[in-house]
Amino acid sequence: METMTSRRSKTRAFTLIELMVVVAILGVLAAIAVPSFIGYVRRSRTAEAVQTLGSLYTSAASLYVAEHAGRHVTSTVVTACVAEPATLSPAIPGAAKQRFTGGAGFDQLAFKITDFVFYGYGISSVGQPGGITCFSNSAVVSNVYTFYARGDLDADGTQSTFELSVGSNGAHQLYHARGMYVARDSE
User: Fold this and answer.
1) Domain range enclosing 75
2) Residue 124: which residues within 8 A CB-CB, separation 6 or more?
3) CA 52 to chain centre
4) Peptide bond before 93: cis, by omega within 30 degrees of 0?
5) Between 20 and 30 A from 70 (CA), which of 22, 95, 115, 126?
6) Tens digits of residue pLDDT in 121-143
7) Number of domain units in the chain
8) Residues of 167-179 as b/e, b for ≥16 C-beta within 10 angstroms?
9) pTM recorded for the entire structure
10) What is the dihedral of CA 65, 66, 70, 74, to 10 degrees?
11) What are the pLDDT digits (tens) for 49-67?
């Protein structure tokens, strides 16, 4: 018959010290991993703004080189057309995704976003409100558009800003700035 002392010597268990060491290690790992994870999530959300502004530029370049004519046989064909300005949509971006509704300027560019977005998008343009504005083939307009995105990823009232400036050259082609203006990208 086994005695009580021999049974205790065969049973293995963690000591309180060993458990406290494991908890301390997990605490240190969590203290490092959680802020890094939050930073990665914010940076991945900023990719939405960069990609969307690039898509807006592509749509604007397509409109700019397209030929536009009136209804009559004697109508002149013009290019160098720009969309009208459009206000921020959604108007008050927050930490949660919202529906992008666009507006006339976005419609003129045939630009749509079907998914919900973290950022609000807008168009600053040399075009006149009320329709597409076309310039004569001899006119060179240096600052045609500024596409912008505003967002508040952590709902603290501080917005991050992304802007892409667009101009045209003497060959009636749109070009954009070499870089994008970014302020408080992950706020």
Assistant:
1) 28-183
2) 85, 145, 146, 147, 148
3) 6
4) no
5) 126
6) 999 999 899 888 887 766 667 78
7) 1
8) ebeeebebebeee
9) 0.76
10) 70
11) 999 999 999 999 998 888 7
